[in-house]
Amino acid sequence: MYDKIFLQIPILLLAVLVLISGCTLADLEVNVASERTSLENQVLGTYNSLNQRALLVASVRGVTPGGEIESRADQSRAQDKAMESMQVLGFHRDDIQNFKTLGWVGENNQGLLTPFSMQKENIPANLHDFASRYAKQEFDSVVSEVNRARENVMQQVIRTNERFNPEDMDKIRKVFWKMHVQEALPGEKIQTRDGTWKNKQK
Question: Residue ranges per domain, the chain?
Answer without folding.
Answer: 2-61+73-199
